[in-house]
Design a protein that fits this description.
This protein is of the alpha+beta class and about 160 residues long. It is built from three helices and seven strands; from the N terminus they run αβββββββαα.
Length: about 160
């Protein structure tokens, strides 16, 4: 008798991402129930784990119109709001998991302070600088229906 081995289908984490032309990438998100937000955040961390080039991922990128994003370091931000930002800005070059191969320059604040609920469901406020400030602002843009990289991507497809 032959053993019955079930072959697991190899999964590409990118298959969890919605297509670049999906309207949800440019639709503002709504606040979410904290427990549901935590589950969404844990799912985002799992997806991000399998995409080595990603520094962060937001719920709309996987089709959820919820104010949740996660960072590579394991942080989850539920219902985040930028409560302060520096007057100083930099022009930075960004890419986006939703628009592979496309990069664009974006003006970002050097420092941002964000109020949010973390993965332990604690309300917290943190200040971010350097690359973390850039990533947080990029993910917040996703939650607000803004994607600078997507605009460049779409222009390149029309040209």
């Amino acid at each position: 008798m032959q053993p019955n081995y079930k072959m697991k289908k190899a999964r590409n984490a990118r298959t969890n991402l919605i297509p670049p032309d999906d309207v949800r990438l440019v639709t503002p998100c709504t606040d979410v129930d904290l427990y549901h937000g935590r589950l969404t955040g844990l799912h985002l961390l799992k997806v991000l784990k399998d995409i080595p080039e990603g520094a962060g991922i937001a719920a709309p990128q996987v089709g959820q119109l919820e104010r949740v994003f996660a960072l590579r370091n394991g942080s989850i931000f539920i219902n985040p709001k930028i409560v302060a930002k520096s007057l100083e800005t930099d022009i930075v070059t960004e890419g986006c998991l939703s628009y592979p191969g496309t990069k664009t320059q974006v003006q970002r604040h050097k420092t941002v302070t964000v109020s949010y609920v973390d993965k332990w469901l604690n309300s917290t406020t943190d200040t971010f600088t350097s690359i973390k400030a850039i990533v947080v602002q990029h993910e917040m843009d996703h939650l607000n229906g803004v994607c600078h990289v997507g605009v460049k991507y779409k222009k390149s497809k029309v040209a």
